[in-house]
């Protein structure tokens, strides 16, 4: 909650200054993402028994960003995005004489990105095409099942497991004006988590921006 309060305080101050010169915009996005991290677990041959840790590579991602136009071809933004990857579990076995049945039980992985981005058009002439570089702070929530000498249904997150990371992102966007205040675009981003030296995710999302 404190991160949201800080985020909106910064946006409020920026809005007051930006509205004087009509350079502020808010943008919503929702689309597809592929998460590399959710396929990185080793589930076979574990000494603690059968594990269901990995999720489907393809999932969804959505978010909001507030942008400020610094120059005619560059802008900065603050944003939040959340992605979700799911997997359905089916399992039948016996544990110490007791039957264990799992039927169409869904586990999921959520990634929450707090982002700062710099965006720049290719040139003053080609303003529809934009390149991006950014930094992000990441918190995840991971549901997992382990069946061995015990049965464990876990939901690990920052509160109980201190799951947090930081990284860099890069991407591009094609954006066009569709009326006086609205812009429509397509954006692709790739996320690389520096703190664990691993490619995190890649996204492709339609975007809709409102310019104040």
* Total number of helices: 2
The fraction of residues in strands falls at over 45%
Q: Which radius of gyration do the C-alpha atoms yield? A: 21 Å
Structural class: mainly beta
Taking all residues together, what is the mean pLDDT?
90
H/E element order? HEEEEEEEHEEE
Major pleated sheet: 8 strands, antiparallel, barrel
Percent range of helical residues: under 10%
Strand order of the largest sheet: 1-3-4-5-6-8-9-10
Query: Tell me, what's the shape?
Result: elongated
**Count of beta strands:** 10
Tell me the span between the first and last alpha carbons. 27 Å
Which stretches of 5+ consecutive residues score pLDDT under 50? 13-20
SSE layout:
Elements: H1 2-18, E1 24-35, E2 50-52, E3 58-69, E4 74-95, E5 98-121, E6 129-147, E7 151-156, H2 158-161, E8 164-177, E9 182-193, E10 198-211
Antiparallel strand pairs: 1-3, 1-10, 2-6, 3-4, 4-5, 5-6, 6-7, 6-8, 8-9, 9-10
Structure characteristics:
elongated; 65% strand; mainly beta; eight-stranded antiparallel barrel; 212 residues; single chain; 10 strands; 2 helices
